[in-house]
Structures are given as structure tokens and as C-alpha cells.
Automatic annotation (TrEMBL):
CDD domains: FN3 (cd00063). Its main location: cytoplasm. The keyword Repeat applies. Residues 67-151, 157-240, 243-335, 337-424, 427-499, 1036-1131 form the Ig-like domain. This is Titin. The lineage of its organism: Eukaryota, Metazoa, Chordata, Craniata, Vertebrata. Residues 737-834, 840-935, 941-1036, 1138-1209 form the Fibronectin type-III domain. Coiled coil: none annotated.
Amino acid sequence: MNDVVMQVCWFKDGNEIRKGKKYEIIAKGVQRILLVHKSGFDDEAEYECDAKTSKTSGMLTVVEEEARFTKNLSNVEGTETDSVKLICEVSKPSAEVTWYKEEKELPEGGRYEQIMDGKRRILIIQDLKMQDVGEYNCRLSPSVKTSANLKLNELAAEFISRPQSQEVVEEEKAEFICSVSKETYEVKWFRGDKEIKAGDKYDIVSEGKRRALIVKKCEAKDEGSYVAHIGDVKASADLYVIEKLRIITPIKDAEVKEGSEIMFNCEVNSEGAKAKWLKNDETMFESGKFIMAQRDNVFSLRIKAAQKADVANYSIILTNQRGEQAKSAASAKVAEEKLKFLESIEDVETQEKKTVSFSCKVNRPEVTVRWTKAGQELSLSKRILYRVDGLKHTLTIKDCVMDDEAEYTAMVGDDKCAAELIISEAPTDFTAQLKDQTITEFEDAEFTCKLSKEKAAVKWYRNGREIREGPRYHMERDGKICKLIIKECRPDDECEYACGLDERRSRARLFVEETPVEIVRPPQNVFEPPGSDVVFEVELNKDRVEVKWMRNNMIIVQGDKYQMISEGKIHRLQVCEIRPRDQGEYRIVAKEKDARAKLELAAVELKSPTPICTTAIISFVLKCFTAVPKIKTTDQNLVTDAGKPFVMSVPYDAYPRADAEWFLHGSSLPVQNVDTTTDKTEYRLKSPTKQEQGRYKVVIKNKHGEGEAFINLDVIGKDHGSLKMYNMKRDVVFSDVPGPVKALRVTDTTDGEVSLAWEEPESDGGSKIVAYVVERRDVKRKTWTLATDRADTPEYCVSGLQKDSWYLFRVCARNRVGSGPNVNTEDAVQAKNKFDVPDAPEEVMVSVVNRFGATITWEPPKFDGGSEIVAYIIELRDRTSVKWEAATVCGANDHSATLNDVVENKEYIFRVRAENKAGMGRPSAATKPVKIMDPIERPSPPLNLNFSEQTKAGVSLSWETPTSNGGSMITGYIIQKCDDGSDKWLRCNARLCQDLSYRVCGLKPAQKYLYRVCAENAAGVSDPAEQLGPLLADDPHVAPTLDLSAFRNGLEVIVPQPLTIRVPISGYPTPTAKWTFGDKELTSADERVTMVTKSTFTELVVTPSVRPDQGTYSLTLENDVTAVSGEIDVTVIASPSAPKDMKVAEVTRRHVHLMWEAPEHDGGSPVTHYQIEKREVSRKTWVKLQSQRALGWLYMVTLSANFSWLKLR
């Protein structure tokens, strides 16, 4: 372009091109560039560049490219018998390739499978053999190809399956079978130390990987251990030869006398055989006559009391568990014997009316025994019977009488035997039992029974306690008849009575129907002066009746004020020292009857002087005369019947006499109904009505003050007519008692119970219903029995009934006035279930079984008995037991249940019952025995696969047992590996691994692998555990370390010895060592320097050493983990130079004084001393004198007088 900033647009065949993955548009200075990536034939077109004012275009032509390999083959490694894949990729999906092994084209098919997968070209070689090792190449053309090498690991010589011990029967063949890891491996068989060769006795089979040793016509001498060898690997198995069933001792012919015992014995050579005895080829069965026994390997047949009929041919057939049979036969002969008794009759002692028998045995069947009594032949009858059963003869005498007592003799042939019959008198018994009695109260009851004998003594009992003759109990005896008469029976006499005869009892119950209570003489009104004691007396129609006394409808309690006395039918109430407050109506209640009487105080006239004015009367009068009116009662709560006259009274003390005014609802009441005396005020209601009930207020006042009292009045009962009160007019009708209940019905019956229900009465009588009274009556009795008087709802379940008895029921409502009319049930009902028990449940089966329990399922019974099923009861029993036990109870809607309260590995049988209101039904059919155990399935994968001890050649894998073993024992584990990036898994262990760890060997160094483990049990192989990896086949990398502890105090070297520094090191990969001296790195280029580094040490050697080698040496170790360094101080020591300027300072006859200066250098170590030597001139050797410390350089030598010349150094 001629303009740098000019914009252009690109077009392909007239369509504008946008920048993207396919097209890249570039502006570079004045150049405008369009890049078309990955050109294809569809990119052929005319491309145009438009700069608005100018255009230019050009054609793109795409030339087809030859196919090429985009991904080459990779070397692969496998194991014999496995499969491998060789994979490469080409540039074109349609490209055709040819596979070669070295220069030989590979055929498609057989062990070779060639696959085209898009651009991928795959060669699969199956069932690898060692001859498959070599170079494989894939060719697009003779010149375009890719190659890879196949390496195979030879299978180790080992047994995949080992020979198993064999147990065979004589003359049968035994076959030991094993399989080896490779078809070419040869297996040698040994017995003891001797190799087995194929021949008449043995066959050796080799088919593929299968190897077999066949031992023909096995004998006892062939038993022993057989060993298979593959090189150094051995596998052994034992051979057990079982003898055939043979009879060692056959049965033998026998000849015995009649009545003796015949014995046949047969012995076999092995255990486990079962015997079958035959008589004249007919099967015999064990009985009292024929006794069959086995002891160890000996089988016996005993024929007791041999007779002519026992003459026959006898045989025994023996069969073992393998079906082998052996037979032996013999004959039996019996010599006839004269008739005789084998067992004699024996003496018998019995009682009258009982049955006795005389029994004996003779030595021959089908004979008749003659019987005599006291020497006279016995006549047979219905009472005296003679019976023959084989050899046993029996004489039976029924209902013995005293005349039957005698000696009895049995005779057969010339033999006889005798025995005596002794009869004792029979004890007395009841021939007629006591019967239940039902009477009315105050009537006499009579119990009668009959005895079997007249003279027997009897005793009478009441509830188990003996009764004595007395005013109320009379006992009579008329021959065999015994009577007990109970006079004037009362309800508390109702109980069980028994007649006792020794240890025997005849029992019956007495039922007494109670007479209603009546008040014969009611109490009388009393009108007595204050301070007197008064007595109310009442006479009832019967005694032992509980009564209660009431004053003004309030119950009276026994105390100092009131004395209540009951004497038989007479009941008294004594009121002591009556006062004005004691006035009122007194009432006695005896059950449902009552009677009333009034107590009023008589006026007292005081006349003075008279003898009657005693101190007590004066004291009483003074007490009554109080200034301010004082009410002598608290608030009163009174109840009265409607329509009946009623007086309300308030006692008080006041002086002078007070006036009283009565109020109701705030209004003053008429004075004509008020009666006020000196000690009380009364208000009289002639015919109380509901309008007159309420809270009454009484105001009592005189000139000294006033007092107030309150009375709460409740009116119940009838009101006939109308009443005008306090400007209100109403007509109200109230019932005395509630009306009858409605719709009384029986809602349900069960064993001993009847449920009733009813509706409330239309009228409650003007007072709330406080309860319902329910009564029952047995249809056999006349009186009603109270079931309850406190039923507070219109329903009640009457219990305690006899299951087989019929009952009527009645119900009435009760309020404060009393009980309403009774309503009876129409029909008698029986106190038992009205339903039948259900049928047995159907289709009972065990659906799920595991080691924790079993799940039982069933279907409902066809017939529920007329009542809904309320529950199902599951029962179980141990297979070895006959006792059924209830295991659990399920609801009516449940049709399955899981039972966990069972014992693992035990067998159980189950059944189910249905239950309704009538009870439990029949059980279902029992299930088949079920063993409590987990079902067998494949195990779950092993857990927590982990590795350790990774090296170049191998890695150790470990794992944990699976969560579930599938219900079967884990037999072993399979370990597999896979190259990273490949999907071909290779098995690592030829045999199952029994442990929870395994060492994988034979890894290629620097190769990455994936690992996984599977568990195997009897059901199969589990899914693999979660794979582990990829893991690099390499030793673990460890950071380098160095040990300089030996150079803690530095290193000293004496010239010219070598300077050697050897440092222990560790680390993987082996670290590189770098030595420096000062700032200079030491290298092997220096002739004096030698450096060696091994996995355990690094060494620096400088030889020969010189003084300049002294200093600090640094060592740095480094690998791919980290780097470490350390320093070593080296001291190089040489001899010091000679002392300087030695001179003789003074010479005497005895001494020479020497002097010198320090040497130029000390050799790298401080001079510690100087060595002085001397030599006579005439000699050649120097003699050491004393060493001089280095601090001084002046020394005196002592000389001998004879020395003329001396050299010193």
C-alpha cells in the first residue's frame, strides 16, 4: 500500500472474510497480509483485497499433500499369553497402511488384528509368544514408515492350579491334574525320590497348559504323596485308596432248640455300610422278636425264643455310600421242645370294682391255656375274659367282687403255674354330687349328696373351712344320703360349699337373692326442751343393713354430739344436749329406702323460786341472752324437693329478742312465712319451686346491733301448677327423676365381657345426670346384680361374666333426686365372641435372608372369621426342635416382617397365624428350613490401596480387606499394572495373592505405571479398587547430606604426604560434588588434584602436598532435591628451616655457651624446641644432647676434661 494507515477488506469469492481461527489478517507497515491456516481443498477460491479506492485479487490453488505419520509407534512391553497394542497416527483418515514384522508383512486375522480408527492405526497382537519379540513397522509406502520394538517378559515357571489330593476306590483310576503358566513348560512327576514314567501303571498327559498324571487300577500300595516338578517349583498331592466293600466273616448256618436264641454275625472290612436282613428273600423289620444290631463293622441278627416258624434261609445285603453291595446267606433250624411256661402268672392284690389281669407266656404259639379257680375250671363270661397274643396269654377279671378272691391256676401240656388274687374293700366315693342352689334371702338352703357306702364319715366345708353343727348349720344322714341345711340364708352365705370324704370332695355353690330393705317402724318426731338427750329409733325388716343418718340433708358423723347404735334390725340415733341449732329434719337412709322425723325444742318456763331452776338451766338461759345478735351458723347449702314443705332455720343469740327479715334476689320476703323466736328465725316454704331456689339473706337485728346470715337453696323435683313470686309469673314443670334411657343395645361380646351403649334420656328431671346404673341378671336367676352405679358416659363394658352363660341387662339414669326407670335389653346375650377365629395366612415364604436375620412375607387368609384381622403372629422353631415360639407380632396391614433375633448359621422354620377379636387362628403351612447366613455374591473392591518402597525395579503395594466379602471367604487378590497413557492392564501375579500386600517387580526404570487390585471369592472377581498412580519407577529422591564430623578439629597434613579429604555422603540421585579452595574451583585439570564421587562418599586428593595447600576447602553437594555445603580447615605442616647465626658465646674447661637466632620459617607450626647435638672431631656420629625450649637461644654445654676438640650443632 502507499499509505501506512489505510484500511483494507478481504474477500473470498465475493464474501467478506472475518478474522478468526481459520483466517488471520495482519497489517505490517505498508503490507497487508491474509493468512489461511491449515489449507484444504475447500479453501481454493479467488481472494480479493479491497482498499476502497483500489482492489487487487489472486487465486489460491491447494495441492494435495501425501499422507504422512503424525504420531510414530512407541516401543511396547508385554508378558507371554497377554495381548499388546501398537498405535500410530497418520495425517489422513483414508490413508492405507501395511504392517510388517521386520521385513515380513503381517497377515490380517488369527492372532493379528488391524484396526483403522479415524487417523489412528492399531495393530493388536494376541496370545503373545516369545517368537513375537522383534521390530514392527507400519508403512504408508516403502519409504514412509514408523517402527517400534516389542519386548516380552517370559512367564515364570509356576503352577496356576496345583494337583489336588485324590480319594479313590480300589481298582479305579486316580487323576492328578494341574495347570502351568506356560504351555512349553515340562512337568515331571515323582513318587518319593523316584521319577514316574508313563507305562502300564501310569499315563502322563500334557495338553496345552494342562498336565495330568493318571494312576491306573489303584491298589492299597499306591497310596502316598505324588509331587509335580517345574524346575525348582514343586506341588504335591496325596492319594488315598479306599478298599471295596467285602465281607470278612460271613453269617453261618445255625441249629438251636425251640425257645433258644438264634444269632447271626457278619463282619465287613469298612465302616459306613448299611445292612438289610432278609428271611426267605423277604425283608425283615426289627421288632421284639427280631433284634438287629451293629457294633463297629459287625452286624448282628438275634432271633429270640426261636420257634418252628423261624426255620428259614436268612441273608444279609450290605450297601455302602458308594452303592457297592456284598451279600451273605445262611439257614436256621429249630428242634421242637415240649410245651412249657416261659413266664408264670404272679399274685395280684386289688380293690373292689377294679379290673385285674393274670398274664403268662408259653414257648409255642397257637396253643390254649386252661384256667382254674380254687381247683375248679373257670367259666368265661363278659366279666371274665381270656385273650391270646402270640406267646402271651391273659386272663382278665372286670369289676372285681370279694367272691373273686381265690387261687388261680394256668395249665398247658404237663406244665402249670398258680397265683393268688387278693381283693380289699374299695374306699367310699360319691355316687351323686352336690348341686348348685339358688334361694331367696331368709330361706333355708339344702345341699344333698350320695355315697357308695353307708358307714363312711363325711365333713362339710364352707370356702375350704370345716363347718360344725350349730344353730344355722344342720347336718343329716340317711343311709347313703348326706344333707347340709343352712338356715335363714343371708347374702354373705353366698359361697362354695363342699362335702369331704377322705381326700375327695364334692362341691357346689350357693346363690342368695337378696330381699329388698323395708322400714318397718320409722322414726318419730321429737319435741323436747333444750339440754335434753333425744333418741330417734328405726326398725327395719332385716338385720345387717348399713344405714346413714342425715340432718337437714347433711350427713351426720359419729361423735360426742351424735351416737349411732345398730342392734339387729333396730337402729338408733342419740342427739346429746340438744340446742336450738339441733332443730330440723332428721333422716335415715337404708339402701334405697329412707324415713324422716323432726326435732323441735319445747319452750322453758322459768318460775322462781322452784326446784327446777337448777344451776344448769340458769347457765343455759344466760348463754342465750346476749346483747348484740350473733349468728351461730356459717353459710348453709340446702337441698329440698319441689312441692314438699321445707323450713330454713338460722339459729342466733341475742338479747333482747331480735327481729328477723328474709331477702331473696334483693327483695324482702313475706313476713307471714317468717317465724322468729328468741334463739332462731325460720322461713317456711309450703310448696318450693325452682323460682324459689337461690341465695337467701337473713338480717337479724335489735337495739344493740344486727347480724347477717346466708343460705343457698337448691330445689329439685316436681312443680304442679304455677307460682307468682315477686312480680314474676311462670309455668314450669320439673321431673323428679330422669326419664328412661334410649336405644339400649349390645355393641359387642367377647369371652366374659359384654359391651353396652345407649342414648341419654330425653328428660334429666331438672337436675344434671350424675351417673348411670347398669345391672345384669343370669337368665337362670331371679335377682339383678349391680354391675356399676358410676357409669358417667352412655356406654359400659360389663366384665366378669361366665363364657357359656346367657345374660339380660338393664340401665337407668340417676340424678340428685334418684334413679329413673330401668330399660332392659330385649334378648339375652351370651358372653362369648360372636366371631370365629380366622383361617391360616397363605403363601408364607422367606424372601430375604442374610446373617442378621430373615424377612417373612405372607398373604391374608381367605376367611377372617367375620371380624377384622387385628394382628399377625410370626412363629419359628429350630430345625432340630419341635417347639414353636412366637417371634414377633405385626399389625393388621403388615404382610411382611423382618426377624433379627436369630442365630447366624442356624436353620429355622417359620409359620404365621392371624388374630382377630375371637383369638388366634390356625397356623399357616411351615416354610422350608432356612439357614441364617448372607447370600454369596462378588466381594466389594479392596480399600485404601497404597504404595511404599518404590524403587527402579519394583514397588510394594498394600491394601485393606473389602467392606463386604460377598458372603464367602476371600480366596485371594489379583494385582494389575498399566503403563501411563495406555489402557492395557497386565496381571502381575500368576497365582492369587493371599496377603494384603504384594511386591511388584520387573518394572522399567523411569517408566510411569498405574496399579489396581481386585478381590476374588467363590462368586467371582470384584470390581477393581480405585487405581493408584501414575507412579514413577525410580528410587525415592533424597536430599544430599554430608558428614564432616571427622573434620571437626580440621585436618593436618605433613608435607609431602597426600592431602586426602574423604567425606561420607548420601542422597538420591547421587549428588554432584564441587570442591573449592579459596575462590578457586578445583578440577581434575590440575595434575596434582584427583576427585572421586560415589553414592556413599566423595574424595579429594592433592598429592604431593605443599605448604601453599594450607587453607579452607569448601564442598558443595547438589542433586534435583536441594544442595548442601560444608568447609574443612586444612593445615599443611613442613620442617622448620635451620636456626640462623649460631655462634659460641663462651668456652671454658667445663662449659660451652651457644647462641643462635630463630629460623626464617617455622614450617607452618610454632617451633616448640631446639635439638642440640655434638660430635667429637674424631668421630662421625652426632650425639643428641638435651632439647632446649624454643623460648631460649642460649645454651651451655658441659664438657669433660679429656675432650680437646668438640663440634656442636
